[in-house]
């Protein structure tokens, strides 16, 4: 880590400078900044004019040391480039903001080692609490958070052991519901394009959901043709081509998210296959791409904004010393034109 | 702002606890944490084992006070829900991370008053530097940043006075180029769906770019039919319907971004209009929606990732006391099927 030095800060305005300019005591300035409802309108205006004129800002580092808190809450997400994380985190931030908290964000590029490093970094930077995605990680990380007394909320999943606070949804159940509909349409040879199931618990549970539906329908789960790849339109195209060029091409391809499904749709068009007559394709998430796609996607709707909002509320509860309950949000299959 | 209290922090492990457990001096622990290359592998392992076992994390609040810096850099964006900001900020964060800096994010919902409040909040929380979108804001904010010695980089635009550090692109020039192509195809009755031009400098410059192209072609800029609305697919649909139900419906509708353009495309399909034969539609940004759209969009490609990366580098330069130069990135018209 490279050290960054700032120019000398000696002429940065202080509380005393503000007090001098406003002609009041430093205690009055503090009151204006911290409990403005306890000062008169006139004093508040005089002091805030001085604050603005001098460009004064309270020193939260000093405050944080004194109070043992920073009102900064960290979120570590795989990437901001997927609309679902952007949407959930936007709602999370709006709710934090209403409660006087600031969001610290880091992204891990879906790498567990990077996520661990970022958990330590955000904690070291003073994050009071953390939002994390999924539940699968080194138990030592949970130990670390416990020892540091940092509340964490797990999102985008329902933590199966119920040992941790989570605000999410059941990926297995959601995908099982969609897979049951796929099988109900008569499909027996099924393909699946998934993210890495070894490191991504959401991806693994979605595949397990398809297996569960197959079992219930008397199909052999082993016959599910799974291609694992990173989430992108291009990768969805390549994986779909791979599935279709196999010995026993599937009649339905269930994708781990809408981005992969849009790639599959594009590849199907390139191969001259009609969707859903020649091959059915499904997504997961219900982002804008899903309904804007050339053939509007049948997919699973996930309440991302609601999840972000409730996750923020849970962390704020925890920071107030209360014990928020985990929340499992319902998902819903959205039937459009690809199944 | 509601105050949040944390549970007592007295049993949070200290540097001395780590030193005691590892059987080394506190100075050695500091070296392991700050300059690990200056200690032996063996010492590093012993100390880091103790750090991990105890769940110790260095206290950046105390460090920040001592060093006058936090290595935290703030970004205030209109919303994370637009893919272009998510993409640019993801690249910005990746570059910051490489340089040992953490990202603080706030979003302003395109509201200038909220942005101003967030500039003060992030600064108060210890942001060493800020990324801002566009250049149009109360001059008093620039004064505040100057007095606080907080470097700021303006992005998504080229700041016209060249008085501020900016890493962006020329919205007027980019849209003028596209409008010239639209006029070159024979269009004389042109519509425009734009975000609020009074508060959004990027939106205003894009409209000005169309006017400039019209002037160059001998068309009367006043004849441009502008509908202003917030960026969303639904609003794009409604604005397109409004333009088409006027007395003199345009033969080409230029949209302020791809999201609005996708809305326009959907509305055109609903009205039974063929694109581009009955009406041409153009976008701006070149996000995934643009090429996934039912008719792939002719749009302006903006190098969002590159912009985020270079903006991070500029701020890091500034924090090192150097004077980075502003950068104007090239944009490029992408011809697809809607013009």
From TrEMBL, chains A, B:
Alphabetized InterPro entries for the sequence: HTH_LacI, LacI/GalR-like_sensor, Lambda_DNA-bd_dom_sf, Peripla_BP_I
Keyword terms: DNA-binding, Transcription, Transcription regulation
Domain of life: Bacteria
PROSITE patterns on file: HTH_LACI_2
Keyword Phosphoprotein: no
Signal peptide stretch: none
Domain HTH lacI-type: 13-67
Matching CDD domains: HTH_LacI, PBP1_LacI-like
Protein's UniProt keywords contain Lyase: no
Cited Pfam families: LacI, Peripla_BP_3
Molecular-function annotations in GO: DNA-binding transcription factor activity; transcription cis-regulatory region binding
Name of protein: Transcriptional regulator
Originating species: Roseibium alexandrii (strain DSM 17067 / NCIMB 14079 / DFL-11) (Labrenzia alexandrii)
């Amino acid at each position: 880590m490279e050290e960054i030095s700032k120019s000398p800060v000696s002429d940065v305005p202080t509380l005393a400078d503000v007090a001098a300019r406003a002609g009041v005591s430093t205690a009055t300035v503090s009151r204006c900044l911290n409990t403005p409802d306890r000062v008169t309108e006139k004093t508040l205006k005089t002091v805030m004019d001085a604050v603005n004129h001098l460009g004064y800002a309270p020193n939260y580092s000093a405050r944080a040391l004194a109070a043992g808190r920073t009102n900064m809450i960290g979120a570590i997400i795989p990437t901001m480039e997927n609309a679902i994380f952007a949407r959930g985190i936007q709602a999370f931030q709006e709710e934090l903001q209403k409660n006087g908290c600031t969001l610290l964000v880091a992204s891990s590029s879906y790498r567990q080692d990077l996520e661990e490093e970022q958990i330590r970094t955000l904690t070291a930077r003073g994050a009071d609490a953390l939002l994390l995605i999924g539940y699968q990680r080194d138990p030592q990380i949970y130990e670390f958070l416990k020892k540091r007394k940092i509340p964490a909320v797990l999102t985008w999943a329902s933590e199966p052991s119920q040992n941790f606070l989570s605000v999410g949804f059941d990926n297995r159940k959601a995908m099982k519901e969609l897979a049951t509909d796929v099988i109900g349409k008569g499909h027996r040879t099924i393909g699946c394009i998934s993210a890495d199931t070894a490191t991504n618990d959401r991806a693994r549970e979605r595949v397990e959901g398809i297996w569960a539906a197959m079992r219930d329908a008397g199909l052999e789960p082993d016959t599910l043709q799974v291609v694992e790849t990173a989430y992108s339109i291009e990768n969805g195209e390549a994986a779909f081509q791979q599935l279709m060029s196999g010995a026993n091409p599937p009649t339905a391809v269930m994708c781990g998210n809408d981005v992969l499904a849009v790639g599959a749709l594009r590849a199907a068009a390139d191969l001259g296959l009609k969707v859903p007559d020649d091959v059915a394709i499904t997504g997961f998430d219900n982002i804008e791409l899903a309904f804007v796609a050339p053939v509007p996607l049948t997919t699973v709707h996930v309440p991302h904004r609601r999840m972000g909002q409730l996750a923020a509320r849970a962390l704020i509860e925890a920071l107030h010393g209360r014990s928020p309950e985990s929340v499992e949000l319902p998902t819903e299959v959205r039937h459009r034109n690809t199944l």
